Amino acid sequence: MRWAPRDADPVATFARVPTECLAPPRDPASALSVEVGRAAFRTPVLLGGQAGRAGLTCETCHKAGRGNPSFLFPGVSGPPGTADVTDSLFSSHRGDGIDNPKPIPDLSAAKAKLKIAQAPAEHRLEPFIHGLITEEFDGPEPSKAVLAGLADYVRALNTAACPAAATEPVTVGYYLADARRALQAAKGEVAAGDAPTAILMIASARSRLGLIDERFAGPALSAERRQVRAADRRLAQAQDALRARHPDVPAALDAWLRDSRGLEARLAAKAPASLFDPRRLTQAARRRLPG
Amino acid sequence: MNMTLKTVLLAGAVLALGSTTALASGGGGGGGGGGGSVSAPSESAPQYDPAAEYAKAVAAIKARQYKDAARAAQHVTDAVPKSPDAWRLLGAARAGDNDWKASRRAYERVVKLAPDDASAHAGLGVALANLKDPKAQGEVDWLKARLQACGDACPDAANLKALTGAVEGAVAGGPAAPKPSAALSGHMLFGGPKAGDAAYVQAVSLINQKRYDEALASLADAQAVFGPHPDILTYQGYTWRKKGDYARAEQYYKQALAIAPDHMGATEYYGELKVERGDLAGARKMLAKLDRICTFGCADEEELRRWIELGHEPQR
User: Fold this and answer.
1) Chain B: residue nearest A229 by CA?
2) Which of B302, B304, B306 should be substituted to probe chain A, the one whose Cβ sees the most A Cβ atoms within 10 Å?
3) Is the overall model pTM greater than 0.90, yes or no?
């Protein structure tokens, strides 16, 4: 919940998100690739570098794969909703010294409206995203599966797939559903023998837990935060197990997925006392320090 | 600073709610090219006592409440005894209070920590002159030599001339002392947090452009506003590391970690410094610490892990 102008409407900016317009492909291999991209899109570890260290993800700018009219980052944004992705604040490669913030595009807009051709045969989307990660954002080289996944995810975003409602509320369940999808993608990559990609998928699930934790702020919710952190620890251990090439990771992920249902119920019960509650969110935003 | 409520919007609210755990990991993100975090220091300053006390001291000097200023500045020097900014501020506060002995002692510390600091030489000169100590002339000479070396056209010339004039005036026993606020840098007096943030963001860009000397100057401007802030110290360490001065870099990382022991950026960069020095065991300790403090994972940890696996900086 950051990088917005001070006078942004907290409910519009943080309590609701645009709905995702995703048309997942049918065949399992392509579907897995889209899910890998979807999870990578949602973790700062993908970006690394300055942006990743600041906690920025692809999704910070392209909320649910769309735009972000209130995005504001000191030194990188012009008016809210724009970003200068060639800024040297994020990049040691592409800082062009020119102040040229651009509107953040809705990636699920009609394909004809987008600048980068998406047809696989054109070979433009993958190099574009590769450049974004490694040059614009100074991130580490992504794995092949992750790069392909991001391109497939962007391709699968489609206006025709937009749900009737333009926005949806941000809830515990919203973030946990993302975490579960990321872990399913992790299992797919473990099965494919791609440990580095699986580790990134787990990182994405952990990022989502972090977003839950930050809304369970305050001493009254410390018991809930402990549970979220314990769930995170288990995922960190699964990452370590993958690095050490332990074979039991899928079973551990399955157990986590099962237990996540109970966790969700317990957290949802307390959500009205947390910043998931729009009223509390507004109050908290109003109580901000002067200046 | 990852994954925290350290948002522009909610920063105040979090403090009110007392969720300092989330905030304490704050500040620590930051630093693709650099070290601290890319969010503005003015947002996170209140959580670090020395930075908050520093701000208090600057405000008190502006309000001519020199005793209050000295008290606050002393808290900063107690917490971060190696910070020249803190001692410079204390020297100015003491001067305002006409406690020339204490002012001299403070400025002597600055000159020891930062021998090239012109405003400290000026402050010391003024204090010595008021103590009728003939060594004041030595500071006039130092400033004049500096001005000559840098030439009339150098960006610092006007400032050096003003400083020289102030010390000469004090030696001549002229109208008492110059206003102590003259010892504060322009940024401190006129800029406030906004200018400090701007200088900081500028520094991060300069680091990414590998313009390290200019970056250090911008960081000094930011530090004049915020005092010893862990994000700024971390970037100072990072910049010195890139300039090849590992010992100096280490000092800055240690200062940052003394103020904010769980600072993610400082921990990561200190770990990378250890890799560069061939101390892999030390680097692994930093990695283990990041694993502990980065709840929910962080890019800093993954970056240091790559360094350790390769035994050197990853290719970009």
Assistant:
1) B295
2) B302
3) no
Q: Which of A3, A9, A27 lies closest to A281, judged by CA? A: A9
End-to-end CA distance of chain A: 19
Q: What architecture is domain A10-95+103-161? A: Orthogonal Bundle (1.10)
Q: In 10 A of CB B58, how many CB atoms?
A: 25
Looking at the predicted complex, does its ipTM rise above 0.90? no
Selected residue of B7, B39, B289 to mutate for chain A interface (largest A Cβ count, 10 A): B7
| DSSP states along A174-239 | HHHHHHHHHHHHHHHHHHTT-HHHHHHHHHHHHHHHHHHHHHS-SGGGHHHHHHHHHHHHHHHHHH
Hey, what are A240's tokens? 């370590």
pLDDT in tens, chain B (316 residues): 222 222 222 222 211 112 222 222 233 333 323 334 555 666 565 556 788 888 888 888 888 889 999 999 998 898 888 888 889 989 989 988 889 999 999 999 999 988 888 888 999 999 999 999 999 999 999 999 988 888 777 777 887 888 888 888 888 876 555 455 544 544 444 455 677 777 887 888 888 888 999 999 999 888 887 888 888 999 999 999 999 999 999 999 998 998 888 999 999 999 999 999 999 999 999 999 999 999 999 999 999 999 999 999 987 6
Say whether A165 sits in a helix, a strand or coil: coil
Q: Residue B210 has which token pair?
A: 């590998």
Interface test with B, best of A3, A11, A45, A53 (most B CBs within 10 A): A53
**Is residue A187 a contact partner of residue A193, using CB atoms and an 8 Å limit?**
no
Any A CB within 8 A of B208 CB: yes
| All structural domains of chain B | 50-188 (1.25.40.10), 190-310 (1.25.40.10)
Q: Residue B9: count other Cβ atoms within 10 Å of its Cβ.
A: 24
Structure tokens at A214: 């930050």
Per-10-residue mean pLDDT, chain A, length 291: 68 85 96 98 91 88 86 66 65 61 88 90 93 87 97 96 94 97 98 97 97 92 97 97 94 98 98 93 66 30
For A14-44, what is each residue's pLDDT tens digit? 888 999 999 999 999 999 999 999 999 999 9
Residue A213 is which amino acid? Answer: D
Contacts of A291 in chain B (CB under 8 A): 193
Which of B30, B13, B47 has its CA nearest to residue B226? B47
Identify which of B14, B197, B295 has the shortest CB distance to residue A210: B295
Sign of CA dihedral A184, A186, A189, A193: negative
Q: Which helix (H) or strand (E) holds B90?
A: helix B84-96
Please tell me if residue A241 touches chain B, with a CB cutoff of 8 Å.
Answer: no
Chain B positions touching A273 (Cβ under 8 A) are none
SS3 label, residue A22: strand
Q: Which residues contact B184 (CB under 8 A, 6 or more apart)?
A: B58, B61, B89, B92, B224
Looking at beta carbons, which residues of chain B come within 8 Å of A13? 9
B306 touches A at CB < 8 Å: yes
CA distance A185 to A120: 22
